[in-house]
Every structure is written in structure tokens, then in C-alpha cells.
């Protein structure tokens, strides 16, 4: 699927023309990492785990497992769809922002990097009605819609 996506010139042209601000992806599926690199977009993860393990261990100065690249991704590098000089693990580790869905207070002590944001419990509150000003913004967002994300704790 990744190969087909990156080889689809029409799709790549449309994605580049959109001029997205960033790529929000699940790093457990490496295609998003490669697509962000291909489109030269800042990379933001939406989960704690990456393809080769736990996110903290991948970027913090801790013992890091090697996480060998294998399977369908080897074709991408072997065929030249992705530059074979690129180290996939370096791409994965170079994400601009790592939102971690954990509560730091429940974790053991470990070094963290400045681009890690702890957002534990962000999924735990029941949905509430939007305040009037935000509801108006949503209703007037036009054909392109909107994305809203809050990293503020709920009261």
C-alpha cells in the first residue's frame, strides 16, 4: 500500500498542491513517516508506540533497541522510491512533536525530550456541548472544515 501511494504521481501531486501544514500520523504504520518526509512536512505522532517499540526509548538517551527495518518497507528503499541513503529509524525518531497518551505521574522516572507532550487522560472525559463562540466557528468553517485539538486539562 505504501509503495502504491508513493508511486501514484497524481496523488502525490494533489497532496503537494494542498500545502498541508503538518502530518499527524500513527508511527506504528511507517507509511505516514515516509509520506511526511516525501512531502517535506513537520511530523507529529498521535500515539506512544512506534514501529520498533515504545516512543520514549526511541528518542530519549536510554538503551535503544535496534528495531530492524524489514517487510514491505525494504522494497521502498531497494527500488529507489525512497532514497536508500535515508535511515528509516532516523526518520521515525526525527518527529517534530511526540504527544504521549500517558500520564507522567504514573510513569517511572526517565529522561524525556523537549518535544514530548504528555496528554494522559485526554480521552477520558465525556463529550460536552461546545461554547457558543466555538460552535459559531464550527458552523462557519466553510467547505474545508476545521480541526480542533486542545491540550488543556479539563476541570
Automatic annotation (TrEMBL):
Output the superkingdom of the source species: Eukaryota
Show the GO MF annotations: UDP-glycosyltransferase activity
Pfam families named among the record's database cross-references: UDPGT (PF00201)
Q: Does the keyword Glycosyltransferase apply?
A: yes
Annotated protein name in UniProt: Uncharacterized protein
Task: Give the keywords, sorted.
Answer: Glycosyltransferase, Transferase
Family assignment?
Answer: Belongs to the UDP-glycosyltransferase family.
Species, as recorded: Aldrovandia affinis
The opening ranks of the lineage are: Eukaryota, Metazoa, Chordata, Craniata, Vertebrata
Amino acid at each position: 500500500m505504501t509503495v502504491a501511494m508513493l508511486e501514484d504521481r497524481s496523488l502525490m501531486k494533489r497532496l503537494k498542491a494542498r500545502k498541508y501544514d503538518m502530518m499527524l500520523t500513527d508511527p506504528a504504520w511507517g507509511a505516514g513517516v515516509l509520506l511526511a518526509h516525501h512531502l517535506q512536512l513537520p511530523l507529529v505522532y498521535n500515539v506512544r508506540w512506534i514501529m520498533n517499540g515504545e516512543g520514549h526509548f526511541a528518542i530519549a538517551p536510554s538503551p535503544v533497541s535496534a528495531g530492524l527495518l524489514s517487510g514491505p518497507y525494504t522494497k521502498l528503499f531497494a527500488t529507489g522510491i525512497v532514497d536508500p541513503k535515508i535511515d528509516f529509524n532516523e526518520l521515525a525518531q526525527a518527529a517534530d512533536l511526540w504527544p504521549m497518551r500517558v500520564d507522567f505521574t504514573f510513569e517511572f522516572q526517565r529522561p524525556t525530550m523537549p518535544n514530548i507532550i504528555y496528554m494522559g487522560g485526554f480521552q477520558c472525559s465525556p463529550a460536552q456541548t461546545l461554547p457558543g463562540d466555538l460552535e459559531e466557528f464550527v458552523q462557519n468553517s466553510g467547505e474545508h472544515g476545521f480541526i480542533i485539538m486542545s491540550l488543556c486539562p479539563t476541570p
